[in-house]
Amino acid sequence: MKKLFYLICIVSFSFGFEFDLSSQNSPLKGVTALNPAVLEISINLENDNAILGADYDSATKQFAVVSKENEFYITDENFKPLRYAKHDRHFMLEMEKTVGATWCKGAVGMISYNKSFVIYEPIDINDKKEQNEQWKHLLKGYDKWKLKEKNRFFTLRAKQQYILDFDYDESKNIFLSASVPNDVRDYWSVAVFDGDDKMILEEYIPKIGGNLSIDENRNLGEFYIVGVDILDDCAYLLSKNYSTILKLDINSKSLIDAYSFANVPNPVALSIKDNKFYIFSRNNKENKVYIFDMK
């Protein structure tokens, strides 16, 4: 039940379980230590609800940001809010607390920990009839967004597991997610889905490659993936446990590098911008981001 409690703590922010944030206790060897954060930013949005997902679009220089309360934003690169909406979770009964964000073909995707997701297109809507259509599933922002899709990812290996983030890769036209371990399955796996029909393409436990190795009697199931971001054929997986970012080569399905960081009290989401890691943290009732140079 301990690992199931991990997830409950993340979603509810009760944090009764003590994570091990020290990278020194990681089962992996060959991990590269990042330099201290170059910048620390407080994020002020519509309210102080916990931010659990973020994704950066280099073409528009905008972030997509998601709170755990079915809220989603577009902000500029300095986190100034440009658009905001709140999805009515009762419109889609499977939509629970929301934990991840991604850009997808010019729209914003938002996912729940149970793999249900919605995709909204940012568009100004002046027609009252169309606003009423969007009002059916939006409590706020029905004049600024249009629903493109509501769906759910179905997995096999991770069928009895939750996820805490996902990302879309335009070059491959795929979505990628990583599950989290629980009391039934003490491992995590990566799932890849088609970007059009959303059907699962593959699901696997990553291999260990590059210069990485793992201690005897330890395993990758000790990591707890709370953030995902794809860049240049690699997925960067943020683990709250051991304050580590795992670099996954999508083609070889291998972990080829890992980066440790320090002094982020509660890592919950990851985004990459201008060769920097943006690690989001929920500190008490404050949303913050810590910016690290990539190595």
Short description:
This is DsbB family disulfide bond formation protein. With 295 residues, the protein is mostly beta strands.
Architecture overview:
This protein has 295 residues and is mainly β. 6% of the residues lie in helices and 48% in strands. It has one domain (23-293): 6 Propeller (Neuraminidase). A hairpin with a 3-residue loop joins β9 and β10 (116-122).
Helix tally?
2
Series of secondary-structure elements, N-terminal to C-terminal: HEEEEEEEEEEHEEEEEEEEEEEEEEE
Oligomer: single chain
> What gross morphology would you assign?
globular
> From the alpha-carbon coordinates, what is the Rg to the nearest angstrom?
18 Å
The number of strands is 25
What is the topological layout?
Layout (H helix, E strand, L loop, with lengths): L1 H11 L15 E2 L2 E2 L5 E5 L7 E7 L4 E6 L3 E6 L4 E7 L10 E7 L2 E6 L3 E7 L5 H8 L2 E3 L4 E8 L10 E7 L4 E6 L10 E5 L5 E5 L2 E2 L4 E2 L10 E7 L2 E6 L4 E6 L4 E7 L6 E7 L2 E8 L2 E8 L2
Parallel strand pairs: 2-22, 17-22
Antiparallel strand pairs: 1-18, 3-25, 4-5, 5-6, 6-7, 7-11, 8-9, 9-10, 10-12, 13-14, 14-15, 15-16, 19-20, 20-21, 21-22, 23-24, 24-25
Features of the shown structure:
295 residues; mainly beta; Neuraminidase; five-stranded antiparallel sheet; 2 helices; 6% helix; 48% strand; globular; disordered N terminus; Quinoprotein_ADH-like_sf; DsbB family disulfide bond formation protein
